[in-house]
Design a protein that fits this description.
The chain is of the alpha/beta class. It is built from 14 helices and 9 strands. It is about 50% helix and about 20% strand.
Amino acid sequence: MKCKTLLVGLMITALLVLLCVPAMAKMELKLAHYGAESHPSQKAALMFAEGVAKRTNGEITVVVYPNNALGAPPELLEQAILGIVDMVLPTQGQLDKYAKPFAGVMLPFAYDDYQHAYRVIDSPEFVGWVGSMLEKENLIFLSNWEWGFRHATNNLRPVKTPEDLKGMKIRVPGEIQLRSTFEACGAVVTAVSFAELYMAMKQGVVDGQENPISVIYSNKLYETQKYLSLTKHSYNSMVHVIGKKTWEKLTPEQQKIIKEESEKARDFFRKTVQNEEASQIEELKKLGMIVNTDVDFAAFKKALEPAYKRIEDYAGADNIKKYKEIVEAYRKK
């Protein structure tokens, strides 16, 4: 009888202890980006969310908002800095407003191939350089994801040399690296929002545009464009950043999980883009696009001297010089 009473007493004590221990607070994080739902960026974002939920045993859930659902990239970045949105996926073109060295990433014709670009932007020299700058702006760098090498499309002719762009109305995003590239070649750079681009090309408001293959394919731009020239004129990627306010709410273990799952999603995104590009190009041919691979890269680099000067003036000559040194250090000789 005494043993039974003792056992009941122990059980009551254990129950009281459990009731007094506060349950682990659950946290819901918002991840917003501009990629379409059909684009690999959304698959990577969902993969990241799933990995975080699984490894934190549901303590952290990530809700993904693609396709500018919570606002355009510049607005989203400001919201992350203010702590309104937890995580975003801007490009270097948006981040260079807060950390000028990011302007070097999109330098025209800087890289030999994807692997060269990865070695540069993932290098400790570059990550350490920009990471400390972002933290001062209330952003924490997690990892570089993907977007891809950019190529030109239009309805008039194949683009083999800079002269082929002369007088052509090309929709180009606001990044100075891209605008200065096409303006140096004599193109008429036209400001059209991406949401309006399809109709603008269909109606002949613009002759062409430039984007990675995955964007051209997933957004069905082939329906309004005849020529695809594999110019590979610039590389850029989404960059996974988290607001410092959100980051500081996480435990060290949760921070570790967030970063590791970000890097896993990055690797998946990169492999997906590279694996799909060749087949997407073949599919674009079947869909009626004329694909041009005959590009005079030497002529383009020569024509872009004014563009390089404009980028230096924007980012600072010392920043661009240092970035070019990193590019050369990671180029395979």
